[in-house]
Design a protein that fits this description.
- The protein is of the alpha+beta class.
- Strands 2-11-14-13-12-15 form a 6-stranded antiparallel barrel. A 5-stranded mixed β-sheet has the order 17-16-19-1-20, with no helix packed on it. Strands 3-10-8-5 form a 4-stranded antiparallel β-sheet, with no helix packed on it.
- α2 packs antiparallel against α3.
- The longest helix has 31 residues.
- The two termini are 89 Å apart.
Length: 368
């Protein structure tokens, strides 16, 4: 038997109301989605770090690179050749002048010395006898001259043999530190191979190749230029090693090939942290600006532009900074911006007139 709604009016009304409620629910959901879709996505404001200029000192300077050298480096070579029988040189040792660095087998030189000595004593005895005869008038001038010449020649040969024998001891010509000692017992010592290289570690210099455009600066301002030497330290272990220096010499000419000229800087600090061959950075400061408003160089973009922050509108403004004075850490802020807030981080994510969020704030005074 089929069931009809017409026979039950109450049930019929309930069905109608259920359909109406369902319809309104669908319309409400669709309308809400439509309104939310027209609203759009709101991106968060970019975060920046701002800073206010501080009063400090800026030194105009140029930075160049070079290598530490010993002003005096002496290769010690033997004056006679032979097998090394004793070797006392060791890299890093300090040696006094005339210290024996190595000995060369002296046997052949001793034999030559004995032969020369015997010949010299023989000719000397003959010359003394003829000299007595000559003085008494018993012999001629020619005999006397021949005997004297033979004696002088024998004496010269004896002195040379003695000198060569002494040269078998290779001595340090100056006091200093041994930088290289590459031979050993059994090696062949000769004038082509240094026994050691000695340097005066109390006189270290850096020879700079300076571009031609700075020639007038160095020549005209030599007495006012201050030099700082920096050797990079090992990260997370040692800080940079720094020392002062002075200009010892400026080459009076420009190299036609490189268009550079040489400047020799003498390092004042002779501590163990500076040694020949080390890479260093040399900063030549030539002008000092004291009590000026400065801001870190991170506030400038590569093209020299910057952004300043307006606290009232919470927006940033694009500005250009030309011909600013910098010391590679800070730069001098133009007077019209000395009280402005500069964006020091986040420059590459903002544009002129954009609202921003300040995440960090440096340079705030107690009255602000």
């Amino acid at each position: 038997m089929k069931y009809s709604l017409n026979k039950n009016p109450v049930l019929k009304k309930l069905c109608i109301w259920a359909c109406i409620i369902l319809l309104f629910t669908v319309v409400f959901i669709l309308t809400g989605r439509s309104k939310s879709s027209t609203k759009g996505y709101q991106a968060p404001l970019p975060c920046v770090v701002i800073s206010k200029p501080l009063i400090s000192t800026v030194k105009e300077s140029i930075t160049l690179s070079g290598y530490v050298e010993a002003k005096t480096m002496i290769p010690v070579v033997p004056f006679v050749s032979g097998t090394i029988t004793e070797y006392n040189a060791q890299a890093g040792d300090f040696v006094e002048k005339d210290s024996i660095l190595a000995k060369i087998d002296d046997a052949p030189f001793r034999q030559s010395l004995l032969q020369a000595e015997a010949a010299y004593f023989g000719y000397q005895s003959t010359f003394e006898r003829i000299e007595k005869l000559y003085n008494s008038g018993a012999t001629t001038q020619q005999n006397y001259d021949n005997a004297k010449a033979q004696n002088d020649a024998a004496k010269a040969q004896y002195d040379l043999a003695k000198l060569q024998y002494d040269y078998t001891e290779v001595k340090a010509p100056v006091s200093g530190t041994i930088l290289q000692a590459d031979l050993g017992i059994g090696s062949i010592g000769s004038q082509n191979t240094p026994v050691a290289v000695i340097a005066d570690m109390d006189n270290l210099v850096v020879r700079l190749k300076v571009p031609e455009k700075f020639f007038d600066l160095f020549m005209l301002e030599k007495d006012s230029i201050t030099i700082s030497i920096t050797r990079p330290g090992q990260k997370n272990m040692y800080e940079d090693a720094t020392a002062t220096a002075y200009i010892e010499n400026i080459a009076p000419y420009i190299s036609a090939d490189s268009k550079n000229f040489q400047v020799v800087c003498h390092i004042n600090d002779t501590s163990l942290r500076f040694r020949p061959g080390m890479y260093v950075k040399v900063t030549a400061s030539y002008k000092t600006h004291e009590n000026v408003p400065v801001i870190p160089v991170t506030a400038r973009k590569m093209d020299g532009s910057a952004y300043i922050y307006d606290p009232e509108s919470k927006t940033v403004k694009y500005i250009t900074l030309e011909n600013v004075v910098s010391d590679n850490v800070n730069f001098i802020v133009p007077s019209q911006y000395k009280d402005s807030y500069f964006v020091t981080d986040g420059l590459n994510t903002i544009f002129d007139g954009q609202k921003v969020t300040v995440s960090e704030y440096f340079g705030k005074t107690s009255g602000e």
